[in-house]
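Archive transcription. Copying these from loose printouts into the bound notebook so they stop getting lost. Printout 1 of 2:
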Amino acid sequence: MTDDGAIRDLLERQYPTRLNGADVDAYVGLYDDDVVWGVPNLPDARSREQIGSLLGKILSKVSQTVEVVVDDLVVDGDHAIAMAVATGTAARLPDGEPQPLALRVMWGLRRVDGEWKIIRQVGTPKPTG
């Protein structure tokens, strides 16, 4: 698989599958040890353990479905930058009404032992209407 294909697979297939399935351990496995994970309205996480802790808290309160579409990707050797739009729904547990969500996400990636890993993530809310 090309680098472009591998990165798109990671972000467009693996990332939402693990997040939507609430598989925190598998989701955290997408990240490198040297990471900064920034999502709206939460403190930055700077380790896989911190990501897992924050995501676990989120998923204990919210059910979500997300789809990711990469619309810009630049690969330079063992580093890459990807920009995408993540859309979907989120609902408060146990019985909240699903609400639309949309984020512009920028990822920094690095090839580690032949495998692409996320090293930076920043998401900003987008209008959903």
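Printout 2 of 2:
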Amino acid sequence: MFSVKDMLKRFADIYNKSPDSNIGKLIGILHGELATLDDTFTRIREWRSIDGAQGTTLDRIGTNVVQSRGASTDEVYRVLLKSKIARNLSKTDINTIIRVLAIALDCDYSDIRIQEKFNDPLEPEPAAINLIRVPTRRLNEVGMSPLQFARIIQKTVAAGVRVAQIELSGTFALSSQYDVLETSSLGLADPDMTTGGELGEVYVPGDDYPLPI
């Protein structure tokens, strides 16, 4: 965005180009209006993306992809929109399911692991999968419960395939040496709480609500 000084330079030298002059004050008012207009256009450009849009703008994107909001917050709704777009292109194989979930949660493919249950040594099932690795932190950030996340997965897999189990495992591990405290990305945290592993958990809020999937 050009400045008031740049605008005044375009006038002939016969004019008083001081910002405090009458013409300088007039150009200052014009510059303020143009700056506001530029900010508006910048926001319009940024809000065309799902990550940047908010409120009713997200609702309009949802209308385009036929995904209603329900009671979802903007954070959860972004996951629904991304997963719906990815599901529209899904081939329902394991790699595509991983891709859909990674796009929805904005994480790496390696953060998600799926295991088919047809060869499970304990409880084999011909048409079922276990989601045995999920980025727990990302689910907590958007405020989505495993039950809600499971419904997204169920809508992604092929018809007749059941999502049997979702495991939310952390990175915490005990020390590799007896009676020795280890502080790293896997062990206990240091006094400043800047290192240490994450405990596994199941995120089930008390006010869980159904998603319009």
